[in-house]
Amino acid sequence: MSRSAMPNLVRLLGAFVAVAVGMGLISAGLLMPFAGASGSAARGTVGAFEDLDGEFTAISLAQQSKIYSADGKVLATPYDANRIIVPMSKISKNMINAQLAIEDSRFYEHGGIDVRGTSRAFFSNLSSGSTQGGSSITQQYVKIMLQEKALRADDQEGATAATEQTYSRKLQEMKYALDVEKTHTKGQILNGYFNIVYYGDQAYGVEAAARHFFSTSAKKLTVGEAATLAGVVQSPSRLNIRINPKEVQERRDLVLDRMLSLGDISAWQHKKYTKQKVSDMVRIKDSEGGTCTKAVDPYFCNYVMEYLKTMPELGPDPDARLLAVNTGGLKIKTTLRRDWQKKMHEELTKKVPNGDPKVGAGAAMVEPGTGKVRAIAQTSRYKVGLDRATTTYSEQAWTYPTRYGGTNGFAIGSTAKMYVLAAALANGKPMNGTVNAPTAAPGNQHAFPKTAFNPGCTVGEPTWKVQNDFLTGGVMTLRKATAQSINTAFAQLASDIGSCKIPGVMAKMGLSDGNGQTYGLSIDYSTGKKIKDDYAISNIVLGSDSTSPLQLASSYATLAADGMYCPPTPIESITKANGKQIKIKPPKCTRALETGVARGVTYLLRGTLEDQGGTAATQRLADGRVAAGKTGTTENHGESWFAGFTPQLATAVWVGTPLGDGPNMEMDNITIGGQYYPSVFGGTIAAPLWKQIMDDASEEMPKKAFQAPSGKVVDGDYVDLPSVIGKTPAEADSILKGAGFDPRNAGVTSSTAPAGTVASTSPSGKAIKGGLVEYYVSNGVAPVTAPPAPTQTQAAAPPSTTTRVQASPPSPTSTSTSSAPPRTKGPENPKTNGKPKNTGDKPKKNEG
Fold first, then answer.
1. DSSP of 361-388, one letter per residue?
2. Residue range 228-252: mean pLDDT, rounded
3. Which pLDDT score, from 0 to 100, does residue 469 have?
4. Which pLDDT score is estimated for 123?
């Protein structure tokens, strides 16, 4: 023997003697002949052995969690280790016999260390200097558990040390094994071993391995399957059942030989199973989970996983929460109605097929009053590792915000008009009131001066130019303005109520952009960043800013919930591996609108689906089910929307161009799903999709009616207006603001009142609480007196053009009609010059 081999021999002898002493074997005279051979080295090692830590503690094993739909179907199986914990009663006798036969046939006879096996390994290793081989089941259990503990603590060095081939590590393993045998029964040790040992291909534990490799359970493993699994434990990386079946088969036959020699199987069983090819036995199951890539719906899975990382019930920080999900064996029940989602996806892809070169679609459904996310879907297919997303494949979700791995969203067009209505009614505007809409036809814009809107909620240029889809204007009811989506009417309404009252309503109703920032802020194009407290009027009135379908659906659900906004949540319940349910604090719902205001806005939005000329009048829900909603189309038809609700469900549908910017992304003169469209509006595809999706989901639900708003909302909240006649403009401003009104100098008028003082106000006497009050300043010149009437008889003069008499609009409990002619074009297409106040390079459209 070479000199270099002597130190290893001495150390190995010393270690072996130390273990023997620890087991009381030397005192029995069994190993005394070897003790002298080690000399002082052995005596020193015995002392070292006595000083080693002898108390071993196990941890709970990492195991699979499962994510379920609301109706109990498995959606995904997130895990760090593909492991399913099972008791010994769920493991077949075939598997127990096979594993013990090849790894530790004297398991029930020794006290943690197999002396015969260790002796055999000892003499075998004398020439090689190795410490491999001879480990009992108990020793293996200790080694793997130590490695698991280190990995769970993110201690990579500790994990390496737990398996390194050194004498000191082997000695510590042996002493721990002795301790485990004192504190655990044989059944407990064997059960722990079967649940922790690695069988390759990311399958930890015998149950996960049985399911993965043979599509069966550990309880149903045949002799051949059990022998195959037992054989790979020695080297699961090399003996990979999936990619190395030939060598695995040789190892399996060795296991069968050993089982035959021990009397665990008969000769005919041995003959039968050695004839089977491993490649013919294997039935790999690749769909059991592991990542969202394998989930039933990867987009929803990603959303759930990211949402779970925000839940304090699962841990103090996102990393701890993710660890709990990946290792805790949790049963996570979501709010998703898989049947509704499946139908939603089918309907979307019927009208907007996957792979359309320019157009994609997405939708989200939320339950009002709870925020439960009932369905989300999009037309793209999930695929990771893409250099560039397409309408065919995308890793990014189009339906939820960036916080959960989604998108900043898309411009929402005229669906934003809902918030203008809510702000108007919240500030006392009568639901049955009117608005004087400036007339503007296609190609003929009306220029609103910058001063028509509150500072901080206006336009950066001298005027904001707005046009309508068809020639219309004049005094009209809010219901008609909403049903036909008259752009100039809503611009005027924003001016009347004070434009800066709109962003606050948006925020209370849960609307933000897809990045979680305040909706509607102007952008500094030189930096690409939003400007704090500076809103672009085109954003807050005509929806030029972006959000996701989930956020818009949740915000619209506020109306169906009588003004209560509930943040969206995909989680119904979470149950621990031990069957105990985790107490979850549901998202806090907040009062966003007074009940009457929410009901009033709902009444106005019903006109979109019910009234003549409504932009979605042909999309009423089946069987007379009541609903309300709003179409939305962006400038140049790049995006189109419909957001609507019943008392039970709220859904937002988006159809648009998620991948780029520029003229090639306009949905004009386009064929989608085999159908040609001159221009795509909110009522063209999005509204019909919304109807079909809502009809499918509502089919088995009882019909419910919307509640009527109070008289105060219907007729308006009018209060006494303080007199400012004869006051200076500064005094008038102070008095009116002090009374809670929004004063505005409307210009100079001829009057006998002293020049420079207020001559009149509009309105006078009473005004909407907190509303706009315009005052006119006298120039000190008396108005010109009209000439006396002729003495001859003449026809009666026509009615004054300044006095308008209008029939009262219908009550909220009836369906109104409009005398406006049917629209010959598509629904609204708000075309504005709505540039933010700070300009620079034109920003690119948000990409999906």
1. EEEEEE-TTT-BEEEEEESSBP-SS-SS
2. 92
3. 80
4. 56
Encoded tokens for 67: 């994510």
Which residues lie across from 758 on neighbouring strands? Answer: 777
Nearest to 5 by CA among 138, 125, 116: 125
pTM for the structure as a whole: 0.73
Query: Quick one: which H or E segment has residue 689?
Result: helix 687-698
Could you read off the pLDDT of 612-622 as tens digits, one per residue? 999 999 999 99
pLDDT band at 789 (very low <50, low <70, confident <90, very high): low
How is residue 292 annotated by DSSP?
G
Comparing CA positions, the residue from 626, 639, 608 lying closest to residue 485 is 608
Any bridge partners for residue 334, and if so which? Answer: 571
- Can you tell me whether residue 787 is helix, strand or coil? coil
- Cα separation, 637 vs 656, whole angstroms: 8
Helix, strand, or coil (residue 572): strand
Taking alpha carbons only, the member of 510, 825, 563, 553 closest to residue 693 is: 553
Closest CA to 551 of 408, 375, 401: 401
The C-alpha angle 293, 298, 304, rounded to 5 degrees, equals 115
The 3-state DSSP class for residue 739 equals coil
Nearest to 478 by CA among 526, 523, 543, 425: 425
Mean pLDDT, residues 809-831 taken together = 35
Q: What is the distance between the alpha carbons of residues 591 and 500, in angstroms, rounded to a whole number?
A: 20
Backbone angles phi, psi at 66, to 5 degrees: -130, 140
Instruction: Enter the tokens of residue 103.
Output: 């790894």
Rg (CA), the chain: 38
For the record, the structure tokens of 778 come out as: 């006298």
pLDDT at residue 777 above 90? Answer: yes
Residue 382: name the closest of 299, 483, 264 by CA.
299
Task: To the nearest 10°, report the CA torsion of 157, 160, 161, 165.
Answer: -150
Question: Among all chains, which residue has been given the structure tokens 């689906």?
Answer: 609
CB 474 within 8 A of CB 506: no
Q: Residue 428 pLDDT more than 50?
A: yes
Collapse the DSSP code of 619 into the 3-class scheme (helix H, G, I; strand E, B; otherwise coil) and give the result. Answer: coil
- With cut-offs at 50, 70 and 90, classify the pLDDT of residue 63: confident
* CB-based contact 281:228 (threshold 8 Å): yes
Among 121-125, 360-364, 596-600, name the one with the lowest average pLDDT.
121-125
Flag whether pLDDT at 152 surpasses 90: no
Quick one: pLDDT band at residue 798, thresholds 50, 70, 90? very low
Confirm if 201 and 242 have CB atoms less than 8 A apart: yes
198: nearest Cα among 165, 169, 239: 239
pLDDT per residue over 473-495, tens digit each?
A: 899 999 999 999 999 999 999 99
Percentage of the chain beyond pLDDT 70 is 81
Instruction: Check residue 802 and give its pLDDT.
Output: 30
Tokens of 91: 């493991």
Residues 6+ apart with CB under 8 A from 635: 544, 829, 830, 831, 832
The Cα–Cα gap between 735 and 129 comes to 98
Sequence-distant (≥ 6) Cβ neighbours of residue 49 within 8 angstroms: 15, 18, 19, 21, 22, 171, 175
| Residues pairing with 574 in the sheet | 332, 582
For 356-412, what is each residue's pLDDT tens digit?
988 999 999 999 999 999 999 999 999 887 878 889 999 999 999 999 999 999 999
Residue 637: which of 410, 401, 408, 482 has the closest Cα? 410
Cβ neighbours of residue 336 under 8 Å, at least 6 residues apart?
A: 69, 70, 75, 300, 373, 374, 375, 570
Assess contact for 603 and 706: CB atoms under 8 A: yes
From the number of C-beta atoms within 10 Å of its C-beta (0-12, 13-18, 19+), residue 131 rates as buried
Nearest to 84 by CA among 223, 212, 232: 212
Encode 166-192: b = buried (16+ Cβ within 10 Å), e = exposed.
ebebbbbbbbbbbbbbeebeeeebbbb
